[in-house]
Amino acid sequence: MGFDEEWAALRAQAAERQESSMRLNQVPADPSGPTPGGGPGVFGSSPAEKQAAANTIENELEDSTKRSTDWADESSNAAIKAFDGWQTAAGLKKVQETWDQQVKTLMGRLSSEKNALRGASGYFVRNDLDIRGQFAPLAPSGIDGIEPPR
User: What is the mean pLDDT of residues 98-112?
Assistant: First the structure.
């Protein structure tokens, strides 16, 4: 079989496997399965999970990044001292400065992610309460504990 025949056969097989109908995003028939966007069917995470993630950043990632940076700086400083007077020392110094700048950027990113995680829970709760308050005038008394304005 030549290349052209093999290529035509492969294209035909792919066309047979390809779904040609259009489907709009919708709730799946089985809600326990994946959602159209590919997620697990739940929105976000709980406040406890956000807090746990923020604590992991603070207690594990930031600490181990700092320890690793200190260890790398000690080793680099020893190498720079050992190669004093050589061009290698100048090169190592330049690499160390670049490394330190990258670590500083990483630490800033970790800090902002940690703060965002801690602030997100409060934001979602305030947003939910605001939306609930907007629907309160429309709800009859006793539904979901929403009281209409008096």
Answer: 95
Fill in the DSSP letter of residue 139.
S
Nearest partner of 74 among 91, 59, 92, 101, judged by Cα: 92
Global pTM exceeds 0.70: no
Tell me how many domains the chain contains.
Answer: 1
- Check: CB of residue 39 under 8 Å from CB of residue 28: no
Number of other residues whose CB lies within 10 A of the CB of residue 52:
13
CA separation for the pair 54, 115 (Å, rounded): 7
Instruction: Count CB atoms within 10 A of the CB of residue 50.
Output: 19
Asked if the structure places residue 35 within a domain, the reply is no
**What is the extent of the structural domain holding 62?**
44-135
Is 33 a domain residue?
no
